Amino acid sequence: MLWRLVFAAAALPSPPSAQPREWLKPGCVVIDVGINDKEDKTKKRGYRMVGDCDFESCSKVASAITPVPGGVGPMTIAMLMKNTVNLARHSVGLPRLALRDRKPSTA
């Protein structure tokens, strides 16, 4: 399974940072929105934050990849989810959801 744009979402059944580079098509863009903690004795807290992708191996294949932490924020995640829902609705013939209510101005 090869992809040009990859959204790495949380809840992969495998350990953190397990999405392998073999899943990726050379030159793809990876938006890793997963947040996991991985044991790391060198850190003060005893762990470090990682995404769902193996950053080191995937960054060698992808043309761009978001780091974890610091790659995407809540607004990006919200818009990705909204677009995913709209595409799912569209695929079964339902109308897309509006970005926001467009009420006429009373001013």
Can I get a quick summary?
By secondary structure, the protein is an alpha/beta fold. The chain has helices at residues 55-58, 74-91, and strands at residues 3-8, 24-32, 36-39, 47-50, 64-65. The strands form two sheets. A three-stranded parallel sheet has the order 1-2-5, with no helix packed on it. Strands 3-4 form a two-stranded antiparallel ribbon.
What report would you give on this structure?
By secondary structure, this protein is α/β, with parallel strands linked by helices. It has a single domain (3-91), classed as 3-Layer(aba) Sandwich (Rossmann fold). The protein contains two helices and five strands, in the order ββββαβα. The strands form two sheets. A three-stranded parallel sheet has the order 1-2-5, with no helix packed on it. Strand 3 and strand 4 form a beta hairpin. The model has no long low-confidence stretch (mean pLDDT 77).
